[in-house]
Amino acid sequence: MDDDRAEPGALAPESLRRRRFMARGAVASLAAAGGAAALPGAVQAATSDNLPPNVPRWMREPGAGFLNPAYGVPSPFEQHVLRKLPDTPPPFPTATRTPLQSLFGTITPNGLFFERHHAGVPPIDPAQHRLMVHGLVERPLLLDMKALLRFPAVSRSHFIECSGNSMAEFKAPGKGSVQDIHGLISGAEWTGVRLADVLAEAGLLPSARWVLAEGADAAAMTRSVPLAKALDDALLVYGQNGEMLRPEQGYPLRLLLPGFEGNMSIKWLRRLKVGDAPFHTREETAKYTDLMPDGTARLFTFPMGVKSVITAPSARQVLEGHGFREITGLAWSGHGRITRVDVSVDGGRHWGAAALDGPVQSRALTRFRFPWVWTGQEAILQSRGVDEGGNVQPTRSALLASDGQNSAYHYNAIQSWQVASNGEVGNVHV
Ligand SMILES: Nc1nc2c(c(=O)[nH]1)N[C@H]1C(S)=C(S)[C@@H](COP(=O)(O)O)O[C@H]1N2
Ligand SMILES: [Mo]
Question: pTM for the whole thing?
């Protein structure tokens, strides 16, 4: 079972993959017992006093008691795992991106959740924050946070993706990392109140069709939400991964519209006005519309299309050593659950089904994994998501054929990472 003898880019059958992987483990333990070395993963000679067979420094004396007793922070050895501004940041900071290449599973730690704000982060005192519900309702409401916290709550995992995520890929292949190119997506377990319950408390009038949501930031961000979405799975959230929302995610209250373009999940939510028609705010007329090749603009393109991206190996990483490695990434769809992710290591000629970590949840990040043996040959890695609505993530050329290159939003094409024979990974358009 020598990895170097595997065919270039071969997709090994399940039984073979399993046996090869187990053989590796056996070799490593053999080597540990003083046997053969020089295999990937095999035990190397000690180069520091802290490596076996020595007793490491941190076992010879007690640790520092409590590092951060009141609120923990990551290990100092993880200080490179950070959110990131664009390489050429605009004069006013507008967005930070999630380090997708460094994260595991599907939950984005709160300190690494991407941010997009149009007028900065308002320093809201929750005691002085209210949610007004008015318009086509029987009983207008003015709710404080205490009142909202007394509603029945739900906790659900959902992604938020800025519809401008990956927008530069409509043009030339970006030179940055997966974080730079696709980092305007994050996932969290949100806790809050069903919008339907709050609207029921106010009592909808028969002519109610749309709900205007307004944020309490200096942008007074406003978007129109179709009533069907408001009554389906929309949430008013105050919890993010088990603690109160972070200020940059909308503390103390945000609207969450699962699967819809991130812009509509209004942060710092202060007002809901029920109407009988969309409100045609700036953010759904001048902005967040999609200019088509024929010069018309698509309005109200709410759900984010099915999408996936390989996070490792990904651009700017370098593969060290040949042999087994897991290709892994994230898939999501604004239309529901991910049902399948296919992976190709030869630029889309052959595909194999990736394993999905369960439980796969609707409109949530889904982790996929695909075993691969890299023999040192050039390879082009791709992933293709499919959702329960039967939507298939398009190739870049298919997306450009339907949407053209004028649109800045809703880029969901298949991402291609090129692995060079020296192990360097880069972004290519195929
Ligand atoms: N009030 C308000 N809500 C807002 C925004 C804003 O600037 N103000 N930005 C929107 C945009 S464009 C996106 S993509 C998401 C980003 O959410 P996040 O910053 O929690 O990642 O919030 C949306 N909600
Ligand atoms: Mo956005």
Answer: 0.90
